[in-house]
Design the sequence.
């Protein structure tokens, strides 16, 4: 009987892990869609797109963001944070004249996302370095 209970518990653990892994994979595939919606909004604002179109894209972005948050996805913004190689991927380093900006994230190209305790992806950032 003990062996049967142990086998049942193992199968339940493996099923739960498979479920989490599947959710994580789907979420990781949706993050670039969210990034592209953000880029679309910025480009539309720069071009002065029709307000109704822009508002529609914002609504879609908010809906997708809400769904991801409902599944436990957390956006982790990096602006003005000290550079942390665990959370940030530096894509560029820019010279800064102010000591307070040395080692800080100056610009965020893509935000980081966390799912529970797991970092799904680091933020792509520009870091300031004192001249």
Sequence:
């Amino acid at each position: 009987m003990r062996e049967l209970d142990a086998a049942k518990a193992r199968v339940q653990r493996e099923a739960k892990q498979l479920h989490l892994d599947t959710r994580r994979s789907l979420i990781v595939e949706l993050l670039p869609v969210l990034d592209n919606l953000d880029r679309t909004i910025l480009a539309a604002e720069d071009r002065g797109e029709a307000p109704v179109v822009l508002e529609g894209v914002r609504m879609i972005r908010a809906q997708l963001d809400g769904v991801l948050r409902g599944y436990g996805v957390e956006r982790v913004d990096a602006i003005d944070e000290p550079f942390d190689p665990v959370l940030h991927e530096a894509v560029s380093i820019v010279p800064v004249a102010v000591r307070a900006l040395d080692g800080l994230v100056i610009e965020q190209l893509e935000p980081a996302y966390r799912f529970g305790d797991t970092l799904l992806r680091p933020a792509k950032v520009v870091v300031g370095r004192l001249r």
Q: What stands out?
A: The domain at 74-131 is CATH 2.30.22.10 (Nucleotide Exchange Factor Grpe; Chain A, domain 2). The helical segments are 2-47, 51-70. The beta strands are 73-76, 88-96, 105-110, 112-115, 118-121, 123-130. The mean pLDDT is 94.
